Amino acid sequence: MAAGGNPGGISPCCYQHAVTADAVFCGECGKPLLRCMAFQECGGLVGDDGCCSVCVKPQLFLDKDAVTEVKTGGVLVLPLVFYNASSVARPLFITDLWVREGDGPRRRVELPWKRLDAGGSNRVNIQTGALERQGRHGIEITFAAATNYYMREERFAFTSLLGLEVEQGGSLVINQTINTTGAGTGSDTVYAPIRLETMGDAVKKTPGGKAAELALQRADAFEASSGVRGYTDGPLKGAVVGRGARIVWKGFGADGPAAGPITTQDSMLGLGRAKTVSNGGENQVQLLVTDAAGVIDEQLSQAISRRHLELFIQSGRLSARVTGAAGALVGEHRHGADDALAEIGHGDVVKILPKYPEALALQVRMRAAHGFIDEITITRLPAIPEGG
Amino acid sequence: MKTEQLVVSDPRLLAEFVAPGELKTFFEKRFEVPPDHIGLLMRNGQFVQSYRGAHFSMGGIVHQIKGLIGGSTSISLMIADLKTFQHFYDVVARTKDKLDITGTVVLDLQINPEKPQNILGMMQQRRSLSKEDAALRIKSHAWERVFEAAVSRVNANEVRGNKGLQDMMQADLMKECERVAGDLGLMVRAASVSWAINEVEKQEAIRAAAERETSRLEFEFTRLKRDMEREHETTLIKIDNKVALDKLDINNEDDLRRLVLNNEIEFNDARETGTRIAEMKVLAHEIEMLKVERLGKFEGEIQQATHDGVDLKVIHERKRLLERNTETLDREHTLKLRALEREYDRETRTLDREENRETAKYDRDYGRETRGLDRKETRDNKLEDQDDEWERRTKELNVAAKERDHGHETRKKEVDVVEKEEYSRMDRQREADKVALEKLKGLAGLEAEQERERLKRRIDEADATHRRDMDQRKLEAQREADRLVLGAKMTPEQILATNAGLSPAVAKVLEEQAKALATDKTAQMDLMRQMVEQANRQAVRSEEQARAMFQSGMTGAVGVAAGAGGKGGGNGNPAPGEATVECPKCTRVNPAKAKFCIGCGEQLRR
Fold first, then answer.
1. Taking 70 as the threshold, does the pLDDT of residue B577 lie above it?
2. Other C-beta atoms within 10 Å of A358: how many?
3. Which chain A residues are closer than 8 Å to B582 by Cβ?
4. How confident is the model at residue B186 (pLDDT cuts 50, 70, 90)?
């Protein structure tokens, strides 16, 4: 989680300059201002991991009176409490929950609920296997949390480790220790709130009847491997697009858009027939059909909507929302009014006018290093000559 | 010492006592009982033991001396045949469908080797027991109980090959034999009945034979019929007529008969043609054979002639020479012909080239002239078009100018009309006011009424003011109650804001910003206080207003809250009167303190 006073590792100066609506870079440190997709509501900034510390602030607790009595070979039921600590009224959606005991496989737990309103909490019980082995048992609780803003959704996975000490010497003693080894909201603390002894009356419960908070850590490797974030197939399977990935535009001529990450207020890039923002329009990239010599084909250009396409990075994937009336072909699939959202992968070609696929297309290529995509090159086909 | 074998004297006997004379001898005598027999030894009328494959030694002087001393003993020996034997007898039984059927019963019997001495009970003359006597003891008991009982359950045509029936009879017979002769040392090994042909079976056999014969006849008939049909289909009858064709108009069978009887027509079987074809084939074969034979003979004669001195090789060589000469002449002729063709082609190609060159030259000249003419025409057309366009535009401009002038005049007229209307309306109003004033002056009595109305208005106004005050107080009280209720759930920052009179929604916005901007808890509270003051100064009442306040900039507050020690500059927008600097790259105006351009990220100062 975010460190206190420096949420998401973002400097305070960036927050100061992000208040200016059209600010793209921080005037103090010069870093690009990456706004949360729900910036209008939360005013938060995000880092390369795309996680807004204002919107996504889940907390996990082990409920009070968590363990009652366990004998050798018995199972342990852990009552968990999910809490949405978001300070703005942004709901969270807990979509999946996995439990893993020791080195065993992750087991998916069905959740009866999904929505977690800000300030609200939901409960769920998870059950361990039979604790027959003496020694320390590790239980890993991983869950996927999603935050939505209109049609967009960002998903993240968080994990927490729970250590259970099972001793056996005439009687079963379960000593539960919870280590907050992750970057917590405060300083690192070690809790040992539960110590169970099934012998006699030495059963101890959570002191003071309070729920114990479990430290949460972003499970970035799990996000990539399980498809919570990043691409699940294709040549860049398991790779995640960084929120600050540099987008390089090629083939747009001398007046083409400048390379850089997405720094708009709504963290989306608008592409269409209308003029660019710098020229008094509403788009970041203007799309017009031209011939080989760079002369504009007005008739075909009219078929492109004023705002035809919106590009954004969502859950570690480059995505597009096709808003144009004519639709667009992403790969071989046509996206339009009913199926507006499209995921764009490495090597995909976005054909702007499905009826005239050769008229104008955008070829997308990505550069990945160690499973992290830091540069996306979008090439216009046919390319406009540099002098044109 | 010689051993004598003891067996039954007659094969028809089942058991037999050995004659005493054979046993009493002066010299000792040895007897042997073979394995398929059993010897039963009896001493002094008591059965002692049975022996199978036994060996006895009897008589002799030693035994006699012993007999003299110890007294004599009566010894007798019975030999019984242990082999199974068969007994046949006929039975007659009545079937279920009341028909007497005859059969031959075969019984396999044997002496029970476990208790062979019991067969003594079957011996009547105390000498021997025949096999037939033993079998007959069973026959009479088994007749009714076994055969009649079993056969009466089936019909006459069901007895043959009926394995179940045979098994049942065998089992019953064994049971009966065990009952009758089980303690007499006799047992049944197997039993079966061979049934004679009964009447029902005879009739069925006759019927089956008749059916078979009928089927055969029917098959024969079908075959003949098929043969006839085939012959009918393949036979062609040729009719040779000796009369005029009009007489051959046959209407019925009688006409046909008449013609045949009169020998006016006769039928010829066309099958003769086939015979003739076969004969022709035979003839062709013979011709072929003769040809081959003649050829062989001729070759033989040639060989003979070669042997006799005619040198065919010389003839063949001369023939080959002639052929070679002919071939050479042919080739020479061909070569000459090709040379002529090549020469002709060369001349033709030269002529073609010259013609093509001339044609191309002509085309070029023609094309040049045509293009020159086209260009000239295009230029002329363009000039004409430009003139037309200029004229058209001039006309349009004239028309537009006229329209404008006309419109200006029209509008001027309209304004004049409106002004005149306005003046007349004002005159009318003035006159009306004058009349009204005069009326009011004339109505002095109404002044008291006006005073009353004035007082009433004042009272109403006072009431409205009071209601507003009360509503305001109620609202404040409600807000305080809400604040108290919400305070339980609020953070200290929110409580601070709400205590300062801000709404919970505004307090929440301020808290978010404070959290986002402050470095630690203390700075967060300081920032919160300043924000609250700012919000109160700007009379922020709603969430939107609060957000707008932050959009416009919390210059002073943020500067402190950033914990940057007066790194003011706020949100990047230069404050009024603040020094600014223009970005050399994107020309955006930035505060002078900014290190980077907030528009393009260009470094402004180090």
1. no
2. 9
3. none
4. confident
